[in-house]
């Protein structure tokens, strides 16, 4: 019995030693991990190379988000880690970065990089700019923007953006933005709604069509990809977002209108009602009309939201950032109807009877 007690004491001592060793190892591992994390973060907050004088040219596209700017800086080896830079900028409460071409060096501190991006200092002036207003179709962009601001004709521009081989290349280049939905049977132009409205600087006398087009796509991607997580939760695609946003862009005149009209469309979709928005009929008919008549609403076409329930097959115009945001942050209302008066102001109603009263009061005959 005495021998057994000695054995047990010996086993206890061995177990204690093992526990002590394991605990010590864990402390060492945690300490090493913590030190490495601290060192990594500290290094990431310092210049990439304090002695470097090599100039790195970085092009920040119009409409770029903080996420895309941080990723761009890391990709060009101007900063060590995009995530840490993003958190650093948020901690410092910095914002309003400017698009442009920047000559940066690896010896710059994070504060110096941030200040450069905020001031929007461009190291060479554009030769000219191309302004794409909100709410235009690709055909209007071709005729009223490209043909007037560049040496290309509207036909050349449309031929380029409709070229199946080029569209295939773009889908590979922008996999998160351009999906098979842009090649649907009823789609008039694959890039309809994907050419973001903004002012684009041109640094060449005769920029290529692909350069012009892809600047617009870069801006669209910068304004859509940040919502990728939200879209996944909703089980929706960028094509759905841009299609919905294009309807708001064509109907609304103010941010509050966009959010309220978005709520009307959501309410109608939920009640299995057709959206009945006039711009889809005009787009379906393929020609601009100041006013629609009863016979126009009977025009049968996949894009007509009078003849079909749900959203049209694709965007009917290029939507700006406000319309995109309104789709994902609509007002909370019970409205099912709205109309615009002669001054363009929208009036909303919960019932058809209220809607008829608004029509009589604000439109008349």
TrEMBL record:
Q: Which residues cross the membrane?
A: 14-35
For this protein, what is the EC number? 4.2.2.29
Which cellular compartments is it found in? Cell membrane
Q: Does the keyword Cell wall biogenesis/degradation apply?
A: yes
Q: Which family does it belong to?
A: Belongs to the transglycosylase MltG family.
**What is the purpose of this protein?**
Functions as a peptidoglycan terminase that cleaves nascent peptidoglycan strands endolytically to terminate their elongation.
> What name has this protein been given in UniProt?
Endolytic murein transglycosylase
Organism of origin: Planococcus kocurii
Q: Which gene encodes it?
A: mltG
